[in-house]
Specification:
Order of helices and strands: HHEEHH
Number of helices: 4
CATH topology: Recoverin, domain 1
Helix content: 40-55%
Distance between the termini: 13 Å
CATH architecture: Orthogonal Bundle
Radius of gyration: 11 Å
CATH class: Mainly Alpha
Low-confidence stretches: none
Shape: globular
CATH superfamily: MTH865-like
Number of strands: 2
Length: 79
Amino acid sequence: MSVKEDIRAQIVGALEHVKFPIDTPEKLLGSFPDGAQTTCKSGDVVLTASDAGKVIKSDDFPFKSAQEVGDVIVERAGL
């Protein structure tokens, strides 16, 4: 599994019990298990939900699924 796939899987896993759609950045960050401090790690790559929040744009909302959140974050983070 690549770093990109691993980080995406961790994001999706962290949000698997969340009710979608999510319509604000605040609700998205609050949906992660440890909020903005939720951390995904793969190899030497460390990505917090707070870091991920920096690459999400207001027009990305509403997110309809955890998979969609994972896809957007890993693509924009350049993983």
